[in-house]
Amino acid sequence: MGLYFRNIFQGVWTVLIGMKVTFKHLFTPAVTIQYPDVKLKLPERARNRLYVNMDDCIGCFQCDMACPVNCFKIETVKSLPTEDLGMTSTGQKKRLWVTQFDIDIAMCCYCGLCVYPCPTECIKMTDVYEFSEFDRHNLVYNYATVTQAEVVGIKAHAAEYEKEQAAKKAAAAQAAAAAKAAAATATPAVKPPEAPSSQKPS
Description:
The structure is a single chain. The chain is α+β, with helices and mostly antiparallel strands and 202 residues long. It has a domain at 50-146: Alpha-Beta Plaits. Helix content is 34%, strand content 12%. The protein is built from four helices and five strands. The longest helix is centred in the last third of the chain and has 39 residues, at 148-186.
């Protein structure tokens, strides 16, 4: 009989021990955050979605070279001497058209290595973390500010300018070669003086 009641006591005691945490939380205030209506404040240096200020981008490829996962796709075109692309906020003159600046945020590992080498500080990590998509192609962010029509025109003008410069260099080289040949023809060859004889007169 004693064994019977002892087993009952041990069973009830085991349940009470297992429910200790549950009973404790029955009498404490709820701490559940009602997301998305309520959001926790992120740390000051949180690393989430990237942002690029294209007004300060000079197309130096420093961020692309620092990225360990190659999530950047950048293309630049050299501006013409007659074009003024303006200055950055740090006082650097912009010399390149940035015709493409894409970031595949689905590949990004949020390491922040692309932020530090930027000479104009135009790229930074933001605190935006809600950017999920059903289609992963929507996670490729295009930051370039020029349109496709403008890109076509920029590349055409650059190719035309390079062609003109190549023609000028070829014409200059040809003129220099012709001038050199004419100078060589007009100037007669001077016979070098003979060396004096080393024999003494008898």
